[in-house]
Write the structure tokens for this entry.
Amino acid sequence: MDFGAGLLRHLPAETAHDAGLRLARVMDPFLPHAGPDDPRLAVAVLGLTFPNPVGLAAGFDKNAAVPDAMAKFGFGFVECGTVTPRSQAGNPRPRLFRLTEDGAVINRMGFNNGGMEQAARNLARRSGRGIVGINIGANKDSADRIADYEKAFARLAPLADYVTVNVSSPNTPGLRGLQNRDELTGLLEKLVTLRGSRRIPLLLKIAPDLDEPAQDDIADVVRRSGIEGLIVSNTTIARPALKSAHAAESGGLSGKPLFAPSTRMLAAMHARLNGAVTLVGVGGIASGEDAYAKIRAGASLVQLYSALALQGPGLVARIKRELLACLVRDGFAKLTEAVGKGA
Ligand SMILES: Cc1cc2nc3c(=O)[nH]c(=O)nc-3n(C[C@H](O)[C@H](O)[C@H](O)COP(=O)(O)O)c2cc1C
């Protein structure tokens, strides 16, 4: 299904995104469901059973306005957010750029979102039953960033299937500093304490631009923290050789150029964590082969955003079809058998 994606491609990137969101909201009641997934694609992790491993990454539906519509396109789960306690406008436009020749996107949105009360209202009136995660962050002008994560967690965790702690956006100055050993230990301790005996899974989303010692620290903190998952990765501030006119825009780069570095880091974190937590692979997935490579590198689940923006929602069904073909080709009876089996 093209879902007007061809038309939207001719609009400026953020205008197209806003139009796509509005269209999804209006069309939600009329959208047919993608239909049941092949049972070989099911994944049971984090105490949840995902019908397929292909999720929508954070940033598309910042306010949890359309998770049910997105699930109907065939995603196995939808991650909404990043949501901050208070609403904020984000950076001035333009702040979202398509790098079509590179199969990439650069964004410096800066956590534009309607705040946790708006997201909570939207989540509370959902009718769908698909798996929805909520990704939380801190306000740009916050005096106490850790307290922001606590507030957003307390408000939104009861309305979601899992919560992602986003400390890796490059577009909120200083935010990635929370990936440092001491700050991260403090943040995760607070959230695990706040969670108490509730069974809501906690995941941490990290940047792809961490050096080896920083990766060692994160693996160590994650292992001790009691959280259940790690998402690798957010967008990169690196600029590999790019062809597009927008290549020099500041912000986070995603899409095809992020595939190799984020997959390498996923494999490295898999080696470090050795099954201690569930890994979610994200960065540059645009085909079933790409998703399969992440799974073989150690991911039990995958997510994507840029390829959806560049290609439209028909991509989801294609990725699932191709992924199944990869499993059959390599003699795996089900997807979970391929997790971490190397390239
Ligand atoms: C426009 C845009 C906005 C994003 N916003 C967020 C966000 O709010 N929170 C977050 O954790 N990641 C955000 N991301 C990162 C994506 O979730 C994902 O980690 C990254 O884009 C790599 O995946 P991809 O190559 O499939 O796009 C955003 C990405 C894009 C392109």
